[in-house]
């Protein structure tokens, strides 16, 4: 496997060179480049590059799948060599750049919260539980500040001013403010309020930079950037964002309690295509809002079933193509990552190139999602995740259920088994033509 710097050096000319890169960002597994001329991108060579797990072209958007960890270091190496910092105009990519940097903290705090809950339920080390809760809850109580910081950074404002405005909403004394007869509570509005407040702060700051004399800019601009959006947050944005956040939570509850099986079937079945196109990033604010409002996101365990369908499909492909050395090698190398929730190697290396197995993998995800959704109907075995990022087996430490952690683990594990089985059976019997399958081209 090439080093990150060597891989970055290899990728740069294949993407058309520095002059062809208009923006360069990354999510948990993908390098995302916005190019000036897609014709200059050497897609076939990109796919054949060691270390590249897959490539997705969508107009001027190029997504290079590198896997977790590697993508961060490669993106940093590329940024150093190209100095590409121009932000893209597409909303989904902006959302990703705001929230993806927060995911490691969400994962760490979520696992610690799960450990605290486990110790509390087992009545072990009771003196340690409050300390673990404090460690786990500190970040979540201030997540709006981090969202505000990242929002201002993304939209070209001063990051710390965006964080300062968002901090207004989490100040403990905010309940003393009479907002037109409406009482306020610290954190009201959650991440949606932080997004709105920081976006407004950026607009105020830009206006001030244009009209405030340079001699006064250092004093007037920061003051107005915090004051005006801060007042707007207290007297309007917090209430509006709070209502929107509550609506998101209520809709998720209603969706699962009234049509959990159908909703789970649809969500689990459609998630793989969303991941393939990179559109799943649009769900990050929804997950973050649910976690802030309810303590967990009930959507993530359902969506994670898409990966289970992909794993089952890959095993079926392995058995149905006994003489295809290349595909079987890819399955063996990518399957452990797939079990841990990193599905891109299996998607781009196995199911998508073969065609039908990708569709049958979606069927597996649909059945797994339908099962988890069915268990949540009528307020039954609802399963949530206390953080976003992991899926597959890696999601087990982050599970939370209405009936306790044991039932949450059981329901989620059963959903994975359903997804594995449905993906395997659909692929084995319907993932290939009726005639004897031929080995795919290496």
What are the key terms here?
442 residues; alpha+beta; Gyrase A, domain 2; 3 domains; two-stranded antiparallel sheet; 17 helices; 64% helix; globular
**Strand order in the sheet with the most strands:** 1-2-4-3
| Count of discrete structural domains | 3
What is Rg?
Answer: 23 Å
Oligomeric category? single chain
Query: With helices defined by DSSP (H or I, 4 residues minimum), what is the helix count?
Result: 17
User: Which percent bin holds the helix content?
Assistant: 55-70%
User: How many DSSP E strands?
Assistant: 6
Uncertain runs are none
Q: Which secondary-structure class do the elements indicate? A: alpha+beta
The overall pLDDT average reads: 88
**H/E element sequence:** HEEHEEHHHHHHHHHHHHHHEEH
In terms of DSSP E residues, the strand content is 5-15%
Largest sheet: 4 strands, antiparallel
Backbone shape: globular
Whole-Å distance between the termini?
A: 19 Å
């Amino acid at each position: 496997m090439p080093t990150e710097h060597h891989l970055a050096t290899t990728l740069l000319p294949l993407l058309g060179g520095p002059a062809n890169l208009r923006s360069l960002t990354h999510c948990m597994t993908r390098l995302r480049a916005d190019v000036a001329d897609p014709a200059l991108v050497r897609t076939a060579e990109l796919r054949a590059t060691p270390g590249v797990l897959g490539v997705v072209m969508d107009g001027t958007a190029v997504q290079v799948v590198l896997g977790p960890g590697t993508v961060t270091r490669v993106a940093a190496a590329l940024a150093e060599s190209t100095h590409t910092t121009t932000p893209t105009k597409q909303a989904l990519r902006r959302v990703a750049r705001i929230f993806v940097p927060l995911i490691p903290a969400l994962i760490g705090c979520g696992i610690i919260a799960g450990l605290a809950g486990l110790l509390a339920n087992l009545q072990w080390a009771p003196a340690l539980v409050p300390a673990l809760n404090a460690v786990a809850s500190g970040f979540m109580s201030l997540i709006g500040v981090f969202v505000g910081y990242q929002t201002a950074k993304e939209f070209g404002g001063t990051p710390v001013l965006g964080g300062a405005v968002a901090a207004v909403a989490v100040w403990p004394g905010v309940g003393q403010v009479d907002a037109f007869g409406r009482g306020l509570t610290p954190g009201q509005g959650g991440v949606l309020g932080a997004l709105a407040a920081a976006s407004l702060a950026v607009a105020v700051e830009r206006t001030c930079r244009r009209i405030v004399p340079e001699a006064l800019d250092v004093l007037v601009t920061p003051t107005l950037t915090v004051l005006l959006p801060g007042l707007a947050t207290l007297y309007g944005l917090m209430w509006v964002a709070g209502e929107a956040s509550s609506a998101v939570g209520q809709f998720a509850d209603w969706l699962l309690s009234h049509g959990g099986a159908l909703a789970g079937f649809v969500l689990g079945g459609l998630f793989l295509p969303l991941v393939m196109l990179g559109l799943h990033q649009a769900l990050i604010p929804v997950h973050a809002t649910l976690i802030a409002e309810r303590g967990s996101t009930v959507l993530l365990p359902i969506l994670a079933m898409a990966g289970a369908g992909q794993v089952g499909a890959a095993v079926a492909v392995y058995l149905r193509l006994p003489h295809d050395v290349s595909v079987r090698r890819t399955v063996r190398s990518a399957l452990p990552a797939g079990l841990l929730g990193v599905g891109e190697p299996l998607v781009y290396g196995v199911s998508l190139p073969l065609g039908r197995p990708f569709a049958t993998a979606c069927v597996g995800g649909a059945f797994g999602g339908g099962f988890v959704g069915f268990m949540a109907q009528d307020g039954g075995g609802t399963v949530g995740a206390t953080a976003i990022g992991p899926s597959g087996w890696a999601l087990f430490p982050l599970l939370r259920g209405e009936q306790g952690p044991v039932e949450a683990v059981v329901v989620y594990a059963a959903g994975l088994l359903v997804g594995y089985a449905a993906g395997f059976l659909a692929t084995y019997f319907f993932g290939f033509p009726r005639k004897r399958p031929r080995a795919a081209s290496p």
